[in-house]
Specification:
12 helices; eight-stranded mixed sheet; binds pyridoxal-5'-phosphate; single chain; Aspartate Aminotransferase, domain 2; PyrdxlP-dep_Trfase_small; alpha/beta; Aspartate Aminotransferase, domain 1
């Protein structure tokens, strides 16, 4: 039986009626940009995160990061600490703001290693970009403490962590400012690109709004040099429908992860992700580590089981981020070693128990013989 890594068609069919009504309402209204769905989604998303932040919709998660960082007005050429194990957008947004990146290694939960983080802070460091990777919160409480002590700003990248919590509080509500992606494959995904910036700080969020809306809050008022980055009304309407299902979908992801943990517990050759007690993980990805990855991938392919690699090349090893003037050289041994071992297994609410069991059997056959 073929097993999909992600099944957006199945998800659509489950909510087809709601989606089609939402789309047709927007098309009938002909309000495609900046309409009522965008403001309603912003309010509902803020509420979903616990009500302490406000939301600004933007065109995608990369823009969200770029604009959020710009709003902080960090000193030019200062250094932002970024995890070595994340998607390229996190580091791109720093460089595109005229800042320098210093990579921090990951720990066994795949988020920033705190000892490495602390050791890399210098006079030039201005901010920490904490990425809540694979659906799990970074060690955000300690990161905030370190940042406070060293007078650093904290940006949270929550692209992979919609509804993830640390000690019961949603990620995105801890730092100075936070960003989300609604890329279709995310836990909360649009039917195209979409993103959001959230913050408790209304001054910062207003600055982001100005940047994203051509430099002003009113039409033709260009107070600063801005740009265009908007969440459109159609995507917002779709996201409003999907937001109503997100908690149930995340519950199912947690059940799938539990089945993986149970299924692999007697197989020492498979290194399972470490999950912090304080973290409510929403399992955007379920990433294991194995030594004989190529053989396992070949076997899974034969069995029709899809998989992914997140990420095949750790950012410090990518040409864009190695030995460049905007990257502070530093070693990240875990991220470099683990890029050869990580394997992302099918994960999502689309999986039925039998499929998860089939994945477990196939991986165990390939790894343990
Ligand atoms: C950790 C992380 N940050 C940022 C982004 C960028 O989001 P987008 O694709 O919406 O621009 C992604 C998307 O994959 C991501 O995984």
């Amino acid at each position: 039986m073929a097993i999909k890594f992600l099944d957006l068609k199945k998800q659509y069919l489950d909510i087809k009626g709601e989606i089609e009504t939402a789309i047709s309402n927007v098309v009938e209204s002909s309000a495609f940009v900046g309409g009522s769905e965008v403001s309603a989604f912003g309010e509902e998303f803020s509420e979903f995160l616990g009500g302490s932040v406000r939301t600004l919709g933007v065109a995608n998660g990369t823009d969200a990061l770029e604009i959020a960082i710009e709003s902080l007005a960090l000193p030019k050429d200062s250094v932002v600490l970024v995890p070595a194990n994340t998607f390229a957008a996190s580091a791109e947004a720093v460089v595109r703001n005229g800042l320098r990146v210093q990579f921090v290694d990951c720990g066994a939960d795949y988020t920033m290693d705190l000892a490495d983080l602390e050791s890399k802070i210098t006079e030039q460091t201005s901010a920490i970009l904490a990425v809540h990777l694979y659906g799990q919160s970074a060690r955000i409480e300690e990161i905030l403490e370190i940042a406070k002590e060293k007078n650093l700003r904290v940006i949270e990248d929550c692209a992979q962590a919609h509804e993830a919590k640390f000690k019961g509080q949603c990620v995105g509500t801890f730092g100075d400012i936070a960003t989300f992606s609604f890329y279709p494959g995310k836990n909360l995904g649009a039917y195209g690109d979409g993103g959001a910036i959230v913050s408790r700080d209304s001054v910062l969020l207003r600055k982001c709004e100005e940047i994203a809306h051509h430099g002003g809050l009113k039409k033709y008022e260009h107070r600063i040099v801005g740009r265009n980055s908007r969440l459109d009304n159609l995507q917002a309407a779709i996201l409003r429908v999907k937001l109503r299902h997100l908690a149930a979908w995340n519950t199912r992801r947690r059940k799938v992860a539990k089945l993986y943990f149970e299924g692999f517990k007697d197989c020492d050759s498979i290194i399972l992700p470490e999950v912090k007690d304080s973290c409510f993980c929403v399992w955007h990805l379920f990433v294991i580590r194995i030594k004989n990855r190529d053989a396992v991938m070949t076997y899974l392919k034969q069995k029709g089981i899809e998989y992914g690699l997140h990420y095949p090349i750790a950012l410090p090893n990518c040409p864009a981020f190695s030995h460049q003037s905007y990257v502070v050289e530093s070693s990240t041994p875990n991220a470099s070693a683990w890029q050869e071992e990580i394997l992302s297994l099918p994960m999502g609410e689309h999986l039925i128990d039998e499929e998860v069991k089939e994945v477990i059997e196939a991986v165990k056959d390939a790894v343990c013989g």
